[in-house]
Design a protein that fits this description.
metalloprotease; protease; single chain; 8 helices; zinc; mainly alpha; globular; transmembrane helix
Length: 191
């Protein structure tokens, strides 16, 4: 398979993975917001509002990256802590469901393009779940820390620069990618 076809399939898979992750978060945030503060423009299905160019390129060439998160204001939720947990978990659960669906779809259809498409869909959705469970602000795990212990969250925020520097070093030195590949290997054997 040519390199350009591989990049095109990756690009489609990245776009779908980002959309699968961010739209459920936006829907959860919209539904949990108190009706007084709710605005229709707060819930967007538009894919381009979630694409970050650098994160997109990293997804294409390093197999993981980032996207612009769904915007929400937790102070407008009916219950702030439960709302944070629900929004943080909505994207994660959607990606886990996507992994399961594409694993099943791979079993019932074939062809080299379809096999590559489902492989990338499973991999990217798996990667986004793993990375978002790292307690690095603004990733989902940091929202869970905030919901369960605001003191721990504020300590995390106080050290945010150091956490970000270490996280970016781990990304660019290949440790995060190696970690994802190590955990993905049992799934790859199933495929």
């Amino acid at each position: 398979m040519t390199y350009l076809i591989d990049i095109a399939i990756r690009a489609v898979c990245v776009l779908l993975t980002v959309w699968i992750h961010e739209v459920p978060k936006a829907a959860a945030a919209y539904s949990l917001t108190h009706p007084i503060h709710r605005k229709k423009e707060d819930f967007r299905l538009d894919l381009k509002s979630y694409i970050d160019p650098i994160g997109f390129l990293l997804f294409l060439f390093m197999n993981f990256g980032w996207q612009k998160p769904a915007e929400y204001n937790a102070s407008r939720y009916k219950d702030r802590d439960r709302g944070l947990v629900a929004v943080a978990m909505a994207g994660q659960l959607a990606n886990i469901l996507a992994v399961a669906v594409f694993l099943l779809l791979r079993r019932y259809a074939g062809g080299p393009v379809w096999n590559l498409f489902t492989l990338y869909m499973v991999y990217f959705n798996f990667a986004i779940v793993l990375v978002n469970f790292l307690p690095v602000p603004p990733l989902e795990a940091s929202k869970l820390v905030y919901a369960y212990s605001s003191n721990a969250y504020f300590k995390l925020i106080q050290n945010a620069r150091m956490v970000h520097v270490v996280f970016l070093l781990l990304i660019f030195l290949g440790f995060i990618g190696s970690f994802i590949n190590l955990l993905f290997e049992p799934i790859r054997r199933i495929l």
